[in-house]
Amino acid sequence: MPKLVQEFGYYADLVMEEVGAGPFGQRVIANVTSGKVEGDRIKGTIVGAGADWLLVGADGFGRLDVRATFKTHDGAVIYAQYYGAIEVTEAIGAILGGASRTADYGAQYFFTNPRLETGDERYQWVNHTVFIGEGRLVPGPTVEYRVYRVEND
Fold first, then answer.
1. Exposure winner among 11, 33, 62, 125, fewest CB in 10 A?
2. For residue 58, with 0-12 CB atoms within 10 Å meaning exposed, 13-18 middle and 19 or more buried, which class applies?
3. CATH number of the domain located at residue range(s) 3-151 in this protein
4. Buried b vs exposed e over 17-51: b needs ≥16 C-beta within 10 Å?
5. Domain ranges in the chain?
6. pLDDT exceeding 70 applies to what percent of the chain?
7. pTM of the prediction?
């Protein structure tokens, strides 16, 4: 049975842009303005262009489509891309609307499958590691993640 080992956490500060209702649901673009990555093997900041192209369906779930770039403390660049799902609960909707409450981990369904890639030799291990992320929203709005690597038992 595989096991999950916490690899790193990170947060991203967001600026929301409402696209509106379209043929596939309510589209919101969450532009990343800053952020930080913190773990034993990866430490750094979020740099450059990055955003979450969120599509909220009539079923109350948002489908995440995210791109970001991590710049490590020692100069490596790691590209991150992930999809996921977030249950748009009352608390999530309130935070996205500017409320000052926090949504705890596990209070709603909010999971991602980050894929990381880099050409930097020091971080080649990310190119062949499967990750699972658990998310939450806090005022700002800011998204926070705990990211786990999948290992053999």
1. 125
2. exposed
3. 2.40.160.20
4. eeeeeeeebbbbebebeebebeeeebebebeeebb
5. 3-151
6. 100
7. 0.94
